[in-house]
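Changelog-adjacent note: as of this version, every example in the card shows the full chain rather than a window. The one below runs 141 residues end to end.
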Amino acid sequence: MRRVLRPGGTVAVAVWALGERLEPFDSYAEFVRRNLPDSPFARAMAGGTLSMTPDGVAAALAGGGFEQVIATRERLTVRWPTPGDEARGIAGTPFGPEIASLGPDAAAALLADLAGALAGADGATVPHPMTAVFGCGTAAR
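Full-length structure tokens:
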């Protein structure tokens, strides 16, 4: 990244925070492992594979030649309008094509089951804390 920035340019990165649940992806993966155990994607998105600590992000940026490096851990809470909306989000993950390949009826039934698994006891959506590490650095002048 440093090679394509002008001197004094800023790079910003974001990764999931190591040691935190990666929602909704962890819930999606757990559901797929339970309901499609033979799936070639059942272990996709295993926790920790896409995650770093603030120190790790800062070290990576500094090691890449960036200066004035800052890395912070931030927590945001997200909530989908409905459990069905949250369930349909699985289409944008590695699991999406496999679920679509089940055929319309089977895919719809699986998504309905997923929506039920994601919903709270009252049937409504639940808030999900999402924790990320944001980092930035400046290319040397």
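Structural remarks: Residues 104-118 form the longest helix (15 residues).
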